[in-house]
C-alpha cells in the first residue's frame, strides 16, 4: 500500500480530529462539516452551536491541515 502517504495525511489532520473530539465536541463536528461543505444542522439541546471564537479557531485548524483554502 501507500503507507507513507497515509501516515502523512493522518498526521496532517490529527490536530483537527483531536480538537473536534476532545475540545469542541458535537458542536465543533457540526461546524467543521459545515465549513467543509456538508452542513449537519445545529446540535440538539442542551448543546449550543459553536461560538464565533472557537469557530474561527476551527477554521484556522482546517486551513492549516489543508482541508480549506488559505
Describe the structure.
This protein has 70 residues and is an all-alpha fold. It is 66% helix and 0% strand. It is built from two helices and no strands. Helix 1 (3-35) runs antiparallel to helix 2 (52-64). The N and C termini lie far apart (30 Å). The mean pLDDT is 96.
Radius of gyration using CA atoms only: 13 Å
State the low-pLDDT regions, or none: none
Strand tally: 0
Please, what is the average pLDDT?
96
Helix and strand content put the structural class at: mainly alpha
Largest sheet: none
Helicity range of the residues? 55-70%
Order of helices and strands: HH
Percent of residues in beta strands: under 5%
Distance between the termini: 30 Å
Shape: elongated
Count every helix, treating DSSP H or I runs of 4 or more residues as helices: 2
Amino acid at each position: 500500500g501507500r503507507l507513507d502517504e497515509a501516515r502523512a495525511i493522518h498526521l496532517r489532520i490529527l490536530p483537527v480530529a483531536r480538537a473536534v473530539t476532545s475540545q469542541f465536541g458535537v458542536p465543533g463536528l457540526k461546524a467543521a462539516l459545515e465549513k467543509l461543505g456538508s452542513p449537519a444542522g445545529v446540535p440538539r439541546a442542551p448543546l449550543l452551536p459553536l461560538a464565533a471564537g472557537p469557530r474561527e479557531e476551527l477554521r484556522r485548524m482546517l486551513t492549516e491541515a489543508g482541508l480549506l483554502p488559505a
